[in-house]
Design goal:
single chain; alpha/beta; eight-stranded mixed β-sheet; 21% strand; Rossmann fold
Length: 295
């Protein structure tokens, strides 16, 4: 596998990306454009999929959203949902522009919040070959039901304070991305802090903190509302006991789509990254993608 550093610019911000190409293939390649999850960097939980895809003769493009990882943007680690959607669209365009990419065989792939972005992106691009979304964020209103009312109010008060301070160039008001149950954080589901720390291990840039203004940037995000616009074959992988992505919201989203397969795994959200289900998840996604790009 060849790893090739690349970058592209979105709204004046440089986005760091990496192509992963199979070895010793001269023909134009299909490619999977991969979007990662909430407040993460591109390498968090993606290596098993990159290895499987490239091993089958399929390239990948992985990138850091603006203000994350190696991409530019300040303050750091702002989860800007509308901005991330623009980054994803630009990543697809960047992949298409490569002379070695077969533009008719582009697959959109996303995980967690990136799964929501995959749904939104595929809805806007009728010419993509296929879409895969695992444990996808489908509806903020459903997700908010998994968060206590006290945490919502505390987060909103900090977000407003951070937004006001930003007008005067003050340092951002930071909040934890994750915390143990009973403490304040954007996500406090049982074991999620530990699972995130496993994914982030070895990153020199990631921190368990984000500017509170993130909570105001696309807070009512509902990719399910555009799911019926997706034209390509799709696969959605959901976790039966997902604490942060209610499975009913995923099933409702699938029900809106014209040509979508739903795979449900046992366990929680992180089964698509590590643990017992991962081999089955990778194999199922690879089989689906190969069926679409090697017709």
């Amino acid at each position: 596998m060849q790893k090739i550093a690349s970058n592209f610019v979105v709204e004046g911000t440089r986005i760091q990306a990496y192509f992963h190409k199979p070895e010793n293939i001269d023909a134009k390649l299909p490619i999977v454009v991969m979007g990662n999850g909430y407040a993460t960097e591109w390498q968090f939980g993606t290596q098993s999929f990159i290895d499987a895809f490239t091993g089958a003769g399929i390239a990948t493009l992985n990138f850091d959203y603006r203000s994350f990882g190696q991409s530019d943007g300040t303050p750091r680690q702002v989860v800007d949902i509308p901005g991330q959607q623009e980054d994803f669209l630009a990543a697809v365009a960047h992949a298409k522009a490569q002379p070695w990419v077969d533009a008719s065989r582009i697959v959109i792939w996303g995980s967690s919040l990136g799964g929501g972005h995959a749904i939104s992106t595929a809805a806007k691009l009728p010419d993509v070959c296929a879409m895969v979304a695992q444990v996808p964020h489908c509806c903020s209103r459903a997700a908010f039901k998994t968060v206590s009312l006290g945490s919502v109010f505390k987060g909103m008060s900090k977000a407003i304070a951070d937004s006001i301070k930003s007008l005067f160039g003050a340092q951002p008001v930071l909040i934890p991305v994750l915390a143990e149950p009973g403490n304040y954080g954007v996500m406090t589901h049982s074991n999620w802090l530990k699972e995130y720390q496993v994914l982030a291990d070895g990153s020199p840039t990631w921190h368990n903190a984000m500017p509170a203004r993130s909570l105001l940037k696309g807070g009512d995000y509902r990719p399910m509302m555009v799911a019926d616009q997706i034209q390509c074959p799709s696969l959605i992988v959901a976790a039966k006991d997902d604490a942060g992505v209610p499975i009913d919201s995923v099933k409702e989203t699938v029900g809106k789509m014209k040509n979508c397969k739903l795979k449900i795994i046992d366990g929680d959200h992180f089964g698509v990254y590590q643990g017992a289900p991962i081999e089955d998840v990778v194999a199922s996604e690879l089989a689906f993608i190969k069926l679409q790009v090697f017709k």
